[in-house]
Specification:
Blueprint lengths: L5 E6 L3 H10 L5 E7 L3 H10 L4 E3 L2 H6 L5 E4 L6 H10 L3 E4 L7 H14 L3 E3 L7 H11 L6 E9 L19 H17 L4 E8 L5 E9 L5 E7 L8 E5 L2 E5 L10 E4 L7 E3 L10 H12 L10 H18 L9
Parallel strand pairs: 1-2, 1-4, 2-3, 4-5, 5-6, 7-10
Antiparallel strand pairs: 7-11, 8-9, 9-10, 11-12, 12-13, 13-14
Helix pairs in contact: 4-5, 5-9, 7-9
The protein binds NADP nicotinamide-adenine-dinucleotide phosphate.
The site of NADP nicotinamide-adenine-dinucleotide phosphate (NAP) has 23 residues, from helix 1.
Length: about 325
């Protein structure tokens, strides 16, 4: 920490790294101190748009920089394990993009390492920090919908030549489940908890990863979740939470700050839009602010997105993959 500022590093200068770097400017007590890219030209372009003190062509050099407090891992999920371990092994706090790892074995090892070294580690599940999602949690906590009986979520977009190559590449953890379906699973378990039964089936792309997947959760208390993700069609990308006293719809794109919360009590077509304050930005500044707060308190784990939350999410993703027969090379290591 320099004065009251937390000094950030960004590892990997791809698409999401750019959005995150832009939002970091909205965090008063954050400073972008260093960036690392494998590619010289990418590094220069990134540094031009987001100036900072250090620029490296090596991820290791970033991890070794003594002036960096925390590193944001923005590489494909296939590399989160390797890059998070690299940073933790240099005693750097880490905010790691979702999917946190390829499987729960990797996730467990990453968390164990952070705990042993007493270094902060959090999965960048940004939705959990967004104002509209916090409002949803508040409504559910005061039982505004009665007993929740179902969670119905869809997330889909039609990929194009401009979409990242990693989406369909099995070596980079491609497939709709780990990329977008993870948000559907996150909401279902955040609202209903760990399912008692999981079913899943998928349609493979020509590369073998899931281009569409349908997931069903069943709970012994009578609740269900139906989750669908697709890389081949544009879907409403909405989430519905249905209870005995009403239902809530998180409108298009339910996982982003652009979503609104619509509440209907008893009569489904009468919907009240719940007001939520919105700040400018993509929405990544909320999680970054939270990380800063945790670091200033000396925490090694977020009380909001806990290690147990990440492990449960990864374990459930493993079970879904098992049911739908989605395998990655890293599973065999
Ligand atoms: N939270 C969100 O809203 C959100 C949104 C999009 C993506 N994500 C997550 O963020 C991660 C990155 O996604 P992205 O869309 O930013 O991907 P991307 O545009 O492809 O960028 C990934 C970057 O990772 C680096 N990298 C390191 N090893 C690589 C390899 N073997 N192959 C390809 N790239 C490699 C590259 O950076 P350098 O060449 O600069 O080293 C590359 O530009 C994914 O895990 C994804 O799930 C999160």
């Amino acid at each position: 920490m320099k004065g009251s500022k937390i000094r950030w590093g960004i590892l990997g200068c791809g698409r999401i790294a750019r959005k995150f770097a832009a939002d970091l400017r909205l965090v008063d007590d954050a400073e972008l101190t260093a960036i690392a890219s494998r590619n010289k030209e990418t590094l220069e372009l990134f540094a031009k748009d987001f100036p900072c003190k250090y620029q490296y062509n090596s991820y290791e050099a970033l991890a070794m920089n003594g002036e960096v407090d925390v590193i944001y891992i923005a590489t494909p999920h296939s590399h989160h394990y390797e890059h998070t371990m690299l940073c933790l092994n240099h005693d750097k706090a880490v905010l790691c993009e979702k999917a946190f790892a390829i499987n729960s074995r990797q996730a467990g090892e990453m968390i164990k390492n952070a705990k042993e070294r007493k270094v902060f580690l959090m999965e960048a599940l940004w939705t959990k920090f967004l104002p509209h999602y916090k409002k949803l949690q508040e409504l559910l906590q005061r039982k505004a919908l009665g007993d929740i009986k179902s969670v119905l979520v869809n997330f889909g977009f039609k990929t194009s030549d401009k979409s990242p190559q990693r989406l369909f590449n099995p070596l980079l953890g491609g497939g709709s489940l780990l990329d977008i379906g993870i948000y559907n699973v996150f909401i279902a378990i955040n609202v209903l908890g760990k399912p008692d039964l999981i079913e899943a089936t998928m349609i493979p792309s020509s590369t073998g990863v899931d281009e569409q997947i349908a997931v069903l959760f069943k709970y012994n208390n009578g609740a269900m979740a139906q989750l669908f993700s697709s890389f081949v069609t544009n879907l409403p990308t909405q989430a519905e939470i249905n209870g005995t006293e009403g239902c809530i719809t998180l409108t298009t794109r339910f996982y982003e700050p652009s979503a609104t919360i619509q509440l209907s009590k008893k009569i489904p077509y009468e919907r009240e839009v719940i007001a939520v304050e919105k700040e400018p930005g993509f929405g990544y500044h909320y999680e970054a602010r939270h990380v800063n707060e945790c670091l200033k308190k000396g925490l090694i784990e977020s009380p909001v997105m806990t290690h147990a939350d990440t492990l449960l999410l990864m374990e459930i993703l493993d079970t879904i993959r098992n049911k739908a027969r989605i395998e990655y090379p890293q599973d065999k290591l």
